[in-house]
Each structure stands twice: as C-alpha cells, then as structure tokens.
Amino acid sequence: MKTVIANGWVVEPEAQSVVQTDVLIEDDRIVAVGDVGAVADCRIDATGCYVTPGLVDIHVHFRDPGFPEKETIASGARAAAAGGITSVVCMPNTYPTVDEPGVVEYVLRTAAEQGIVRVHTTASITKGLKGKEITEMPALAKAGAVTFTDDGKSVMDPVILLEAFKWAARLGLPITSHCEDHNLVRAGAINRGEVSKALGDVGIPSLAEELVVARDILFAEHTGARLHLQHVTTAGGVQLIREAKARGVRVTGEATPHHFSVTDQLVLTQGALAKVNPPLRTQADVDAVVAGLQDGTLDVIATDHAPHTWDEKQRGLQQAPFGFVGLETSVGMTFTHLVHTGKLSVFDAIKKMTVVPAQIMGLPLPRLHPGAVADITVINPNLEWEVDTARFYTRAKHSPLAGTRLRGKAVQTFVGGRWIYSHERGILE
Ligand SMILES: NC(=O)N[C@@H](CC(=O)O)C(=O)O
Ligand SMILES: [Zn+2]
Ligand SMILES: [Zn+2]
Predict the structure, then answer these.
(1) In which residues is Zn(2+) 1 bound (predicted)?
(2) What is the residue with the minimal CA distance to atom 7 of ligand 1?
C-alpha cells in the first residue's frame, strides 16, 4: 500500500525549510519526499496545508487506571489523533498511581492494545504522590517510564527531592516539575488578583510558582540532573528560567496553549470550567509566556490535557477539580494566537510541538525524510472553525474555549504509516 500526501508545504522545522512537494508513504515508512507523480494507491491532497512531523505532546492525563469516566487510554488517544498529535506522555496521577513497575507495564500494555497514537508514560517521584516516600526510580525507568514527576503537586520535602534529582542524574532521565508551593496555594482556586478579589476567592499567588521554579533550578544546578518545568505561567517564573539557562543550568520549560493565550478574565464567564492548575493569570503573564516562547526560554508547547466529568466541573469554583482538556484545540490555539499574530514563526511553533519535546523525553525524533517512520500531521493553517465540544473525541465534552473561533486545524494524522484521522471523515479505524 502506497499513500501520497500531495502538494503540501513540507516543513522541516530544524532546517527552517519549507518546500511545496509530495510525501510518499509505503507501509510504516516515508519512502520519498519530492515530486512522486502518480505511483500511489491513495492520494491525499494537501494543497495549502503544512505537512509536518507528527506532533508530540509531553503533558497529558489519560486517567487509566482508575478514572475511566474522565478518560481512557483509548479515548485520550483518539482525541490526540483528532488534534494531530501522534505521540503523548501520560502523567502518573492515576489510581493506582504510576509508582510501581507493574503500573508502568499496565499503561504501556493497554496503550499498545487500545491506543491509536504512541503513548508513553511518566512515573511518580513519591509513592501514591504523597510526598513522603521516594519510588524505586531505577526499576520504574527499566519498566519504561520516560521521566519522573508528581504532577498535580510539587514534592515539598527537599530531602526526598534531592534524592530524586540524584537518581535522575544517574539514570540520565529528567525530573519533570509541577511548580506550586502547597502552603502558598492553600484554598485558592484561581489566580490571586482583581478577578479573585471580585469573586471572593483567596487566590493563588504567582509566588507559589516562582518559589518552586527557583528551588528546582537550584536542585538541577546542584545535582547536574536535567529539569523540565511544566506549565510555566508567571512572568517571574519565565525570568528565573531565562537566567538559569544563561548560566548553563540544564533546564527546559513548557507553555500550555491556555496560558499563552487567555487570562483569568475567562473565569468571569466560564466559572469552574476555566479552573486549572496553575491558574490562568494576567495579560502581563501571558505576554511574558509568549516572550519566553519567542526567545527560547520556553522550549515546548504541551497541552496538559486534564479531563474531568461535567458533574465534577459543575460543583462551583471552590469544589470543582482543577483542569480542562486541550488535545483537540492545541493546533488551533497555537496558530491563532502565535503563528497568525506573527509572534512565532511556523518553524518555531512546529519545533516546540515535535522535535524539542521528543528530545527532552528521549523519544524517537519525528522527522520527514526517506526512511523515517511515517508519523505525520497535516495542518490547514487557514481553516476557520468553531470549538464544538459535542464533536470532541475526549470523554470530557466541555471546555472553557467552547464556541471560540480558531484559525488553523490538524486535518490529517498518520501514525506509523496508518492514516488514523481525517478532518472530513473523523477517526479512521
Ligand atoms: N492541570 C490541572 O489543572 N490538573 C491536572 C493536574 C496538573 O497538571 O497539575 C489534573 O490531573 O487534573
Ligand atoms: Zn501540573
Ligand atoms: Zn498535568
């Protein structure tokens, strides 16, 4: 079976090159990039679209094991495919926690059976995410965990954290950090500022993030381990990473589409649907996150796709859980808010969604050249569409972005040469 993706703008983000040509796929591989004529059994017209290496999202929550009502590996993987994402890295805050090799193996086995995209997993730093007892990191790495994180919280005990950083350095794997000091977050549900005042919430101060960013940078510096900082949201946090990079610390930073595009004002209209951790911040913070993406301080765009049930999200600002979905809107948000505004080149945007996140997590690098595995995303940068949550593949059919108009969408997705999503026909199986 030969498939040609014809006449698209083929993007090699690292070479900063884009060429209008064809990509020929045979079985699981790319066999030619160039004018291939009429040799294929199946021809997909990509005129006016970017043809990019398959997108890699290193921050998702698929909730399996434990919370299938929120998401499963099967449903999460379909949502990824519909968002143009061909590889994901799952967070360990499932039930049970991914804190033993058996759970790593369960996730990877289930993914192999049910996941239509490539699913990798993290493991936790502490048992049960309780912050008290370190996991057996070498055994978890051996089972296939790509990094260690207690995402959802920060490890507050510096003795445990120091040990984890030392193990990470020995294992050659990064520590991945959710940066929020619990003691400063307290009962806050949203950013501390004008909006929290208006709504009578105590608010989560920027300092909660900055403190842990600064601390974890020091741990990385002290131990030589690599550190990846998740969902950076504050101007202060971005600046700390910028300074750390300048003095050679091995740190990378991540921005989510929601934190580079919307502010805490969204809570005024969307309520708990817009409640997320870390919270949506101010315009000055959004601008700082964008500046961080522009100057390379922030290396990665990742969604932090965090599905919860509708009922849970209806419990009001205080009681609803933190988090909302992002896989199916990530490309649209990135093109609408970064590429079409001229803030980020298409090369930089694609790089931060493909090779750079793959490098950080030690995954195979998605590439578009003959011989490469055919993980490919086709993006129509000019397709205008409205976010319709009823059409989501994720189990969480709600989002604070519902009804928003976006420009740019993944329209075809290939994993290992298999055509798994088309904008016209949906998920293909
Ligand atoms: N982002 C969130 O608001 N929630 C995440 C946890 C996390 O990423 O911190 C979740 O698991 O629901
Ligand atoms: Zn987190
Ligand atoms: Zn997360």
Answers:
(1) 59, 61, 151, 304
(2) 152
Q: What is the DSSP string of 216-253?
A: HHHHHHHH---EEE-S---HHHHHHHHHHHHTT--EEE
- pLDDT band (50, 70, 90) for residue 15: confident
Q: ipTM value of the model?
A: 0.99
Amino acid code (one letter) for 295: D
Q: Is the pTM of this model over 0.95?
A: yes
Statement to judge: residues 47 and 172 lie in one domain? no
Q: What is the CA radius of gyration of the chain?
A: 20
Report the CATH number that the domain containing residue 385 is assigned in CATH. 2.30.40.10
| Ligand 1 atom with the shortest distance to the CA of 322 | 3
Residues serving a catalytic function are 304
Whether residue 291 sits in one domain with residue 225: yes
Q: Can you tell me whether residue 43 is helix, strand or coil?
A: strand
Total domain count, the chain: 2
Same structural domain, 316 and 413: no
Residue span of the structural domain in which 29 resides = 2-51+371-427
253 CA from centroid of ligand 3 (Å): 14
Does 411 lie in the same domain as 353? no
Q: Candidates 151, 280, 398: which one to mutate for ligand 1, based on the most atoms within 8 Å of Cβ?
A: 151
Distance 323 CA to ligand 1 centre (A): 5
Measure CA 328 to chain center: 11
- Average pLDDT score over residue span 174-199: 97
Same domain, 348 and 407: no
